[in-house]
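Researcher: We're teaching a course module on how sequence relates to structure. For the next exercise, students receive a sequence and then see the predicted structure as tokens, so they can try to spot secondary structure elements on their own. Here is the exercise chain.
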Amino acid sequence: MIIPGMVSATFRKKPAGEIIELCREAKLEAVEWSENAHVMPGDEKGAKALYEQTKAAGLQVAAYGSYYRLGEQEDPEAVFRASISSAAALHAPVIRLWAGKKPSIEVEKGERKALAEEMSLICGIAAEYGIKAALEWHKNTLTDTNESAMEFFRETNHENMYCLWQPTVALSMEERMNGLDCLGSRLANLHIYYWLDGVRRPFKEGIQEWKQYLAHIDRNADRFGLLEFVMNDTEEQFLEDAAALHQLLGR
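Model: And here is the predicted structure for the students to work with:
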């Protein structure tokens, strides 16, 4: 089952309470709380309070959207433990990560090996907390193509490694669907939006496209489908997009 929710960075300038009320108005059920926008790394007290606030509103925590990026830290473990401590206090089942900062075609073999070793370390730390470590499926990282992403899975070789997925604009429809097939059970959550030629559009225009994506996902497994990238960043468009998401999911 796909549980509808939102990524809080969609409205990163709004306080958490307004995010929660917007979710309730949109009849969504979950939030991916974003690091730096609504939960700071290492702020266990604040994360716990936000968890209680989220739970009291009848919502679930879908994930912790960290901005930890592989290959940027002098002390990866120390930096990541600050993020994972907030994720744990937030009761997040998933923590989002980034697979480097360069297009995969520019990453040499030795650099990939170092990033895979770091990812394995991160996956192990996340596993200590019972949290899935999931890479953002994103351009200019090692998950910018299906081939590079799956090779990185093999290079890392850790059972606690997952990916989020979104319809990357640099890939064709066929490539996107093949990516979902490749991920299989390693797919964590979905980031849901509709862009046409790189421009944000109302999500209702993308329902037929998204039906094709969902046909490549095991709907019997529970995961979250999280709205983001709202056209013009307006609440009105967000509420319209949420209604279209409910239509897509048949809810």
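Model: If you want an answer key for the exercise: The CA atoms of residues 55 and 61 lie 8 Å apart. The chain has a mean pLDDT of 96.
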